[in-house]
Amino acid sequence: MDQSTIDGLLRVFGLMVLERWPDGSFVAASTAPEWFPAVSRDGTFPFLGAFLEEATSFWAREDEGRVGSGLCAATDEAGNEFHFEAWAVTAGKRQFLVIERSGSVAQLQETLQKAREEKLAKAAADRTKRETAETLHELTREVRTALASIRNLLAASEDLPEGAGQRHVLEAVRVAATNLGARLDALVGK
Fold first, then answer.
1. Contact 86/48 with Cβ under 8 angstroms?
2. CA neighbor of 37 nearest in space, from 8, 78, 92, 6
3. Could you tell me if 19 and 100 are in contact, meaning their C-beta atoms sit under 8 angstroms apart?
């Protein structure tokens, strides 16, 4: 693949590749995209500020790989804001600074808004799940309590003589069972 093909690919992807020289200066290793002159100040990149310090430390280790800046912003002389991401790259003994222009502010805001909405939806789903678990725990406790009462009343009715005493206990069992059914219906929304 020749250099013009590589330059074309880098332009399509909105990338600017600069090679770092031993004296710390940068030289273009690709043709500059149309946005690049607006944010470069005499071969420096003020918008990369602290990242260039981190990149310099990375390059000093001479480890092959890359380290990224995260999202950065720069403003041109007309006040237009540009968003970028940069990577310090070591390939063999060569060091590069790769700068990519990110989407428009509107696209970034849309992405952030979607992330917020997803976070809120997850929080709502977690809350619903927690509330459902609490409701099921409460229902289980109430069913066990009601069933224990019914068992105790039935056991007590076995010791009573036939007649009014048993009818009274059986009526209490019927009321307890009815109340349990009503509570179950209320909890499940019937």
1. yes
2. 78
3. no
pLDDT value for 70: 81
CB atoms within 10 A of CB 104: 12
Mean pLDDT of the chain: 79
Looking at per-residue pLDDT, the higher value among 98 and 8 belongs to: 98
Give the list of residues 6+ apart from residue 157 with CB closer than 8 angstroms, or none.
Answer: 165, 166, 169, 170, 173
Model confidence over 98-141: pLDDT tens digits?
988 876 555 666 777 888 888 999 999 999 999 988 888 887 78
How crowded is the C-beta side of 84, counted as CA atoms within 13 Å? 29
Average pLDDT of span 175-190: 74
| Type of residue numbered 84 | F
Contact, 7 vs 30, CB < 8 A?
Answer: yes
**Which contacts (CB < 8 Å, 24+ apart) does range 11-15 have?**
13/100, 14/100, 14/101, 15/98, 15/99, 15/100
Torsion, CA 39, CA 45, CA 49, CA 54, rounded to 10: 130
